[in-house]
Design brief:
2 domains; 3-stranded antiparallel β-sheet; about 280 residues; globular; Rossmann fold; alpha/beta
Length: about 280
Amino acid sequence: MDIMTSLEAMTAKLDRIGRRSIGLIMTKGALHEGHIALIKAARAENEYIIVSSFLHSHEFSSEEAYKLYPRQVEEDQEIASKAGVDFFFCPSYEGLYPNGSSTYVSIYTPLMNRLEGQIHPKYYQSFLTTANLLLSCIRPQRYYISEKDFQKKALLSQLIRDFHYVCEIRVLPTEREADGLIIGSRNTLLEPEERRLAPLLYHTLKKAELAYQRGNISSYKLKLLLETEIKRYYRIQLEYVDVLEIERLTSIETIIEEALIVMSIRLGSVRLSDYIYLKK
């Protein structure tokens, strides 16, 4: 596995070997089983796999969250190498933007500032700016992402359409712990009691799913159920809950056939988000 720390070196390498079949996985580092699942899927479909690891403070809800985020570059490189990655791209800010940058990518849609975007407004702008740079310079044929990142996937799809990139988005199932908690880098920051409470997020969503299957199609009633359940636990702070139309991710009042319920909570200093699809 080659380790690249600058965009110049990365693109120079690809110019030499060609860009016939490339799979790209963008991360913030702290690789885990969810990332490994993406790598395995990419390995089966591409000649070359590139995993990027780049942290930007704008992709966090606070400076504290940015500082607390796990950093394990050497361990990440070992994980990526064992999983079959060809290029591990881990630039500093200067490695990605050697001349600095005053240009940002933002999509003119309310989705930019809803859900996760309402918690930290610069998050998707930062993500899309980096994604646009990598898509234009690396030119991957396939981009791999987890189902849990549905909002990111929707915005990325629009970016790819608008800039006419020839890149297919591959969505993989979300990886979960045995107790239902989504596998994520932030889980390591949870205190023991917080970790015990964390799976309640998913289990509460499952209660809403059961209510829907029993005939409750009112978004208001389902959200009230979720809010009531979560507020039973004083250590859990509810950030948002919404019922969405699946394709456009817009709020709906009544579920006709299917919907997506999303919820975000805070446990101590850690934010956790989860979702569940409602289908007949």
